[in-house]
């Protein structure tokens, strides 16, 4: 809260994304001087707009001209792609009418519909839930931005009214981990940016952060551009990108700098697993962490001990276990915990924020919780799969089903894991929920039908993410609604420097809003999902809570089970480096932690002559130089006197033990090295 | 002291010995009894023993009689860049006996690339004929390949070595990669050896050292700054993980910090077979001295992992030792003269590492743990002697006062007070890291192999009296649980029908794993026919699922229909 206010009060230091309009996407964002028109409104955050209500109550939402209409009939653009249309058709479950609390959409005046842009929206009668508080307020959105929040809003004519009927109005979810283009052996996942973002929107997620996964040897920059191009064409919601670092060398360094400075990337993933492919040694990790810290980036870590995994895989294959059960058997959870511990140690040494992607096991989560208690700056990201299901399915007799669960680190076979992770998520020890959505078709998974190490890794979850966090944590009483917003949206926005543009319902934020119905219930099945994969690992599970209506940049994109999206409308959101949420403490620790040597007189006693082979490879000034050769003369003189306070010693009479006596240097001992 | 019987034959006195009026303290119980020993073996224990004439009797006056200490970690006469540590086997074992330790276990450190067997022979050669007390050897594995494997096998089978140390520190020198650790641990688990580990993250240390030197920190304080305790904790955690994966008992040498000790204690709570060894220095002093203005003093504390600068560390380690979370105590006695330490006067990374402690070990533990009420006398015996004997598979020959055990005994004076100083200690080093400490408790009489070696403050030692004690593999203390778990932890594959659905074509192979070609078409499989039937319980593919699949990525129904093994609904 304080940091956002700080940012907003200094106009000259506005985040780059608020300072100027971004021209991607079909609707231009205009700056109406919103900061001046509602000046000071930020202090009261959302409440008091009465001061500005000139017309008083008379101008409250005129209802007379409104009429109900099916929303996509008013979709004037007409460019809705065939694919998108098909998606919206096939997905109406048929029970649209009987969702009981309901959300009504209507227009305030008829003429507005001819304008067609439907740029103005008023959400009425909802409970606005942010990560810090919940309050009853109306939200007015114009040109994709939230313009007013409060009661009795004074709004211009001609807007669409959405009656929330007391349902929760929450910031759209941010899925901080998706892999929609992670190719495997040359094939792309079943869900590309179109399917993936459609699934995201259907689940209440209005922004995804996808992983750019270059192959070793490939240019990071080229891979990034390739991803951006694909996403610009297909994505239906705003997106941003993490870049994975497949290897460490000097070229990568230059590219990273460019990505951070010019491309708006502030998070990079490194791998501790995948020996011989992506894995980095501890030394490389140390260098990578140090470098990324200088750039002000967040380090994402895939934490598993790749060396041991490689050994275990060999062992398991040697035992004749080739099915998907070999996957969890060769990647036991302590290898995850070990790597998490190591990553945190590295982060502490370098003094760099560490973000652990895919927290899948209890022990890894516990390790993170302990480290946070000791003050380490580490963030943990459980994913939909680890919060909902467990690894017992790897032993399924149905190969295709078992293979669908294959992801790394694997789901823990311990069935109490989801519960434990939800508890830690609720108490704040884990911060962000991702989905690690990377859906491969069964025929792609079947590449590894004779060898589990060849099964492409990834599970679905982008669509189910918000619903299951609600079901498993909020509906169970572990978590309140504010924490729900924090873990599904706000924390991710803060860590990746999107806050308060994303992750909050406040004046000036993007119009990414979800109307959430805590009581809706649905059964997850692959038949009704947006994702293109044939298996849904949550098949048959019931999920309470779900979105009723989703707004992406002020446009209604999902309503009562119907998606109305247009591919290519998603914009790339650049992110600035040095996110305060991660880096504020780092900066202060940097200042506090400067180490100093002890100023001593020079040691001028005898020095044993060593044979020249160096014991360590560390850069060593030759230890053989005699003490007289490189002494800064002026200091030396202070100690060269023969005067000694101690005089003759009591033990002078006692003979030193034979053989190893110190020979008194010519010119007598100095007291710096006196041995008494 | 009095002699029974008429004949005073001095020769006999060393062979037959009676300890009267003592309280025998073993690790499990304490009781009052007399001990009669003959030819270096305890022959009788009890009241009113019937013993032959001409026996030298020691009246203990109610003092404790404990099994002689076993220092499981020493580096006597260790070569270092053309020199050796100042305490050779004679000097070192003399210091050990003076402190109540009657057996030492030294580390054989072959240079990387050199034969383990040759190094073992060399160490035996040095120790035989000079050591004053019984000894045994650990062998350090400084590099790993098939010939080393063979040598380890021979050492276990023929040479009486059952414990091998590996290093996670000393990058590019001794350090082992995780894969090598995995292989070594697997091998040792198979052969019944104990994996000892020097646990520090060498790669990060190398980076930190370079950084320190760059910052202009060249003094001994750079040693501790470049080896912060979390690097120790991290490596301990990793070692435990790998050991648990390979089902191998793990022994962490030199536990120097609170966090490392915590990791061990947590792992033990989870059931891992892991033993922690704090050393005299970590139990008795802390790392604040690295900042001493006296370079020589600061350098004398240099050891790896370093002493923790946190002054509450010794107290904490003593607590965990008392509660049994840490199992044994060593000394890591490895002394260099100041001139030798001064090799690193301009660069802390060059300072030879090692502190003293073999003589002070028992006394430090008594003073810090027993007199403070943390530990009872039985636990004292366990951590100074019995546990070490169990891990080395020497129990009950060593580490216990029982009929048939070796006559290595100490009459312990709980009230004596001694001030530690380099002037009076038995080591040849000029510095003592415990300088000036007043410690309560100490040996009153030390009996080694049935002979009195310390009496009335006078040492009567015979160089070369010490024997090599071979250790056998599969010590029960460590391996009973390992064996049981081996039987339990048998992994089984799931018997499934063959997957016969469509397989995505892929271009190149990726990853280093041995891959059976996944491209073979299912029709080539002989068992294919079992599944080729068109019969399906699920019935024909229902038309209603066609619109569900988003366009473009639909699974093509294989010719011959779907089998229900891969049915997708």
From TrEMBL, chain A:
One of its GO terms (molecular function) is hydrolase activity, acting on carbon-nitrogen (but not peptide) bonds, in cyclic amides. Residues 55-101, 646-676 are annotated as: Disordered. Residues 79-93 have a biased composition (Polar residues). Pfam families: Amidohydro_1. CDD domains: D-HYD. Residues 168-557 form the Amidohydrolase-related domain. SUPFAM superfamilies: Composite domain of metallo-dependent hydrolases, Metallo-dependent hydrolases. GO terms for cellular component: cytosol. Keywords: Phosphoprotein. The keyword Lipoprotein does not apply. PANTHER family: DIHYDROPYRIMIDINASE-RELATED PROTEIN 1, HYDRANTOINASE/DIHYDROPYRIMIDINASE FAMILY MEMBER. Belongs to the metallo-dependent hydrolases superfamily. Hydantoinase/dihydropyrimidinase family. This is Dihydropyrimidinase-related protein 1 isoform X1. It comes from Cottoperca gobio. The gene is crmp1.
TrEMBL record, chain B:
Keywords: Cell projection, Cytoplasm. Pfam families: Amidohydro_1 (PF01979). Signal peptide: none annotated. GO terms for cellular component: cytosol; growth cone. It is found in: Cell projection, Growth cone; Cytoplasm. Residues 64-453 form the Amidohydrolase-related domain. It comes from the Eukaryota. Residues 506-535 have a biased composition (Polar residues). GO terms for biological process: actin crosslink formation. Residues 505-569 are annotated as: Disordered. GO terms for molecular function: hydrolase activity, acting on carbon-nitrogen (but not peptide) bonds, in cyclic amides. Necessary for signaling by class 3 semaphorins and subsequent remodeling of the cytoskeleton. Plays a role in axon guidance, neuronal growth cone collapse and cell migration. Belongs to the metallo-dependent hydrolases superfamily. Hydantoinase/dihydropyrimidinase family. This is Dihydropyrimidinase-related protein 3 isoform X4. It comes from Cottoperca gobio (Frogmouth). The gene is dpysl3.
